[in-house]
Amino acid sequence: MREITSNSKSVVFTGHSVGGTVASLSALWFLSCLQSLPSSFSVICVTFGSPMLGNESLSKAILQERWGGNFLHVVAQHDIVPRLLFAPSDSLFPYLCSFFPFWHSSMSNPSFKQLLAQCPDEMQAQFLHIVLNSLEALSAGGLNSGQGNLFWPFGSYIFCTSKGSICLDNAVSVIKMLHLMLAKSSPSSSIEDHLNYENYVGQVYWQILSSKNFQEDDLPDSSYEVGIALALQSSDITPCEAVSGPAKDCLKLAKQMGRTPSLNSANLAIALSKITPLRAQIEWYKVTCDDSDDQMGYYDSFKRRGASKKNSKINMNRHKLARFWDDVISMLEHNQLPHDFHKRSKWVNASQFYKLLVEPLDIAEYYRSGEHLKKGHYMEHGRERRYKIFDKWWRDRKVEGNPGNSRSKFASLTQDSCFWARVEEARDWLNRVRSEGDTRTQSLLWENIEKFDQYARGMVDRKEVSIDVLAKNSSYNLFVEEWKDLKSQLQLFPPHFPSLLDGGGSSSLTIL
C-alpha cells in the first residue's frame, strides 16, 4: 500500500460482507499512515453488506480525525448482516453456525441458494426476531443510544431498495432506518438479501428520483416536504404502513442534522467578523510598540508591560480570541462543522494569522509570569493545543503558485510563531553554560546555542522576521550581544571549543 502513494493520487478499498469490515480496517490503517506524509492522497472505502466494526468511541475518533467522509456503506433494505452485531452475540451463535455456511456457499456458487430451504422456517423467524428486537430497543433510546453499546455506525450509509436509495450520515438516523427497513422484512428475505448487492448496484444506474410518481393532489406544498416524501418513497415505505410515521421522523432528523454543520459554519463566519476589531486593536498595538522610543519591540513591550488601560485591553483581547478559537476547535471535534472545514482557505488563513499575531503575546505572558520556572520552557510544557492544531492545518493546506519567492522586505509578522520561545530557551542555555561544570553537558549546550544562532540568522537573512526582532532592546538582540561576549571570552580557551572559533563543526542536536 505504501508503494501506491508514489504512483497514484487515490485508492479505493472495497469489500462485501466480512470483507467489507476488512476493507474498513485497512482504510483506517492507511489513513493513519498518511498522517505522517505531507501529501493530499485520497482514500475512499466502499462496503456492501458489512457488519458493524466498532463502538461509539471509534465512531467519534473517526469523526474527530475528519475521516467520516471517507467511508460509504451500502446496505440492502432487508439484509440482516449489517444489523447482526446489535444483538447479543451469545444468542446469535447457534443461528450463525447455520447461516454462514449458506452465505459462503452461495457466494461461490449461486445454485447453492436453494440450501436455504433446508433451514427450518422457525429458525429463520427466530433469527430475525432476535435482531429486530435488539434494534428496536436501541433505536428507541434516541440520541443517547450509543452509551454502553459495543457497536455503532460511522461514515455514510446508502440504503438500497427496489424503489431507489437514500443516503444518511447521522448515526442515530442510520440505526433507526436499519430497524425500520428490517421491520418490513420476511425471515427468508432478511437472509437472501445479503446476496443481492449486484442487483442493487445495477439498479442505481437507471433509478432516477422524480416527483412525477406523485399524483398532483398528493404533492406536498413545500420543497422540504417533497424531499422527505421522495426519500420515503425511495425507502420503499408507503404512507399507509405502520413504520411510515417513524420513518418520516427519522428522515427529518437526518435532514436537520445534515444542515446543522453548514449553519454552524455560517454563524462562525459572522462571529469571526465580530472579533476582527479585537485582532485589529492588537495589530495597532504592535505598530505602536515597534515605533516606540524604548526600542523593545512588540514581544518585549508586552512582556515588560506596566499597568495601563491599553495593556489591559490588549491582554483581554488575547483571552477573547483564544476563547473563540478554542470554541471553533471544540465544534470541529464534536462533528458540528462540515467535514472539510479545516481545509477551507478562509479558516486556514484566519487561524494562521491569529497564531502569528497572538502566540508571541502568549509566550511573553508565559515568561513574564514565571511559568517556565514551574513547568519548564514554553515549547514543550506551555504551548496551547490550538496552536499545534493550526500548525497542522497550515502544513496540510493546498499551495498554489510558487511559494518559494524571496522577500524584499521584512515580514509584517514573524513567520515562526514560536520564535520568541526559542529565543528565551537560547538565553537560558547561555546562562547555564557559564556555570555548567560537566564538560559533556557544556558541550551540548554550546551546540544547541550555535544551532539556534544559525537558525535565527537564517530567518533574518530571508526576512522572515518582523522588525521587532531587530529592535535594539529586544530579547533577540540581547541574545546576540550575550552570545558575542561569550564567544569573545571563549578566545581565552581555544583548545576546548575549536569548532566554535573557526565557525565550523557539526552538531548532533537540534532545537528545531
TrEMBL record:
Classification via InterPro entries: AB_hydrolase_fold (IPR029058), EDS1_EP (IPR041266), Fungal_lipase-type (IPR002921)
Keywords noted in UniProt: Cytoplasm, Hydrolase, Nucleus, Plant defense
Entry's localization field: Cytoplasm; Nucleus
Residue span(s) of domain EDS1 EP: 280-487
Residues annotated as domain Fungal lipase-type: 8-86
Superkingdom of origin: Eukaryota
Protein name: Lipase-like PAD4 isoform X2
Protein species of origin: Coffea arabica
Gene: LOC140004319
